[in-house]
Design goal:
Layout: E1 2-11, E2 17-25, E3 28-33, E4 42-45, E5 50-53, E6 55-60, H1 73-82, E7 85-90, H2 101-114, E8 118-121, E9 123-124, H3 130-135, E10 142-145, H4 158-166, E11 172-175, H5 179-188, H6 197-201, H7 204-221, E12 225-227, H8 233-242, E13 247-251, H9 253-257, H10 262-266, H11 279-291, E14 296-297, H12 306-309, H13 326-335, H14 341-355, E15 372-376, E16 381-382, E17 401-402, E18 405-411, E19 414-418, E20 421-422
Parallel strand pairs: 1-4, 1-5, 6-7, 7-8, 9-10, 10-11, 11-12, 12-13, 13-14
Antiparallel strand pairs: 1-2, 2-3, 5-15, 15-18, 16-17, 18-19, 19-20
Helix pairs in contact: 7-8, 8-11
């Protein structure tokens, strides 16, 4: 397959926009030049729009198997493609959970059949599946729920956590909330129907205690650690003090763009774990991104149906969809001066791939994978629930006016999404994961060089 993209403003790793053409052959970027005159199977006129590396979303919940009425690998991957996401890493808290080789093989087979973008999967830790965690070679990493969330995966006893950190070499990604504190706070706020109580029960202290615990175990065993969905300034500052080549962390658009004021407008729609935080915390996360303490952006795309959310707090499940809106949200923030194009590419494209040892993704460079997205930075349009591809059909950002909407998404040199539709026979590939400590190349900060 030879794909020629003409008249694009090509985003180079430096953040410079290069007006020219790009030729992809055999799934790789072959040539970038002012004008390419070569035969191609498909020619795409970019009309001066911005061509970015495809986004890698390193934390999604696509609900298959077990809850396909909310999302499955097909619908979730189509939503990803619409959002300019060309690769995703999916979490293990499905039903049954992905906690052994049999469940991992099942997920990979399902994705090979259904996914229109590239895919990888975490294996979930339990108190008694250490052998599976140590022998697994296909997962992108081990997921530990230090606090209970959706599903039945929970590892909060010190001896179990020590056992996992002490054995094996795979990346460990933690949902860092302290289960003991959450249970105490639940008793304190028992009977409350105010969704804002969610941020008081699963408070900043519960997040900090678990993050400190995970960082301590990582330092003790020199084990590769990734702290998922950092939500507080206190966590960010603690990680800044203890940052090592093998410790990384991420932030979500939910925590970067929403604060606890959103409960008054949206109620249980914005209920998630860990919860949205104060305005002070929100601004601190932006500071952490810009300083390089926070390495990348994920979405924690966690869809639930509107009927479930309508149950109200505390009966409504926690989680929000987000894989379709993360790139437009960040590009709108970039337009408004909150970050640069080079930073955005590092946070959303290059760093997620490097953190998980996925080679040759996240930059537009000859020889690298032709995972790309063409975005419209000229026009604005609102987030409309009816336009979304996610099966649940809603967004916490409904009504927000954004720019940077993807026009075309390309995976492995083939167009999978174009002009509002997924192409027939579109498919992605299983991601390959290499070194468990890729951060050592950067001397401790996974910010890369743009």
């Amino acid at each position: 397959m030879r794909l020629l993209i003409r008249n694009a403003r090509i985003a180079l790793p430096s953040g410079e926009l290069y007006l020219g053409d790009l030729l992809a052959t055999g799934g790789k970027i072959a040539t970038i030049d002012r004008e390419i005159d070569q035969p191609a199977d498909e020619v795409l006129d970019a009309h001066g729009h911005v061509l970015l590396p495809g986004v890698m979303d390193p934390q999604v919940h696509f609900r298959e198997p077990g809850n396909e009425h909310k999302e499955d690998l097909g619908s979730g991957s189509r939503a990803a493609a619409k959002g300019g996401v060309t690769s995703f890493l999916e979490m293990p808290n499905t039903s049954p959970p992905t906690i052994n080789a049999v469940a991992m093989a099942d997920k990979l087979a399902r994705a090979a059949e259904k996914s229109v973008v590239n895919y990888g999967f975490f294996i979930g830790a339990t108190p008694d599946n250490l052998d599976d965690l140590v022998t697994d070679t296909l997962a992108c990493g081990i997921k530990i729920f230090m606090g209970a969330s959706t599903g039945n995966l929970l590892v909060d006893r010190e001896e179990d956590l020590e056992n996992i950190f002490a054995h094996g070499s795979s990346l460990i990604a933690v949902h860092a909330e302290d289960e003991a504190r959450i249970r105490c706070r639940q008793q304190e706020f028992a009977g409350s129907c105010d969704p804002a109580s969610h941020s008081r029960i699963r408070d900043g202290e519960s997040a900090f205690l678990a993050t400190r615990r995970a960082v301590g175990l990582s330092l003790k065993y020199r084990r590769r650690l990734h702290v998922l969905h950092l939500s507080t300034g206190r966590e960010m500052r603690y990680i800044a003090m203890h940052k090592q080549p093998f410790i990384s962390c991420e932030a979500l658009p939910n925590h970067l763009f929403l604060n606890t004021d959103a409960y008054a407008r949206s109620g249980a729609l914005v209920q998630m774990n860990p919860p949205i935080r104060s305005e002070e915390d929100r601004l601190a996360l932006w500071e952490g991104l810009r300083s390089g303490v926070i390495d990348c952006i994920a979405t924690d795309h966690a869809p639930h149906r509107l009927e479930e959310k309508a149950l109200g707090y505390p009966r409504a499940p926690s989680g929000m969809p987000g894989v379709e809106t993360s790139l437009p949200l960040m590009l709108t923030a970039m337009r408004d001066g909150h970050c640069s194009l080079a930073e955005l590419q590092r946070w959303m494209c290059y760093n997620p791939a490097r953190l998980y040892g996925v080679k040759n993704k996240g930059r537009i460079i000859p020889g690298w994978d032709a995972d790309l997205t063409l975005v419209d930075m000229v026009h604005e349009k609102p987030v409309r629930n009816g336009d979304l591809f996610t099966r649940v059909g809603w967004s916490p950002f409904s009504g927000w006016i954004l720019t940077g909407w993807p026009l075309t998404t390309i995976v492995g040199g083939r167009v999978v999404y174009h002009e509002g539709e997924i192409r027939p026979n579109a498919h992605g590939s299983a991601l390959q994961f290499s070194s468990p400590t890729p951060l050592e190349e950067a001397g401790g900060k996974a910010t890369g060089s743009a």
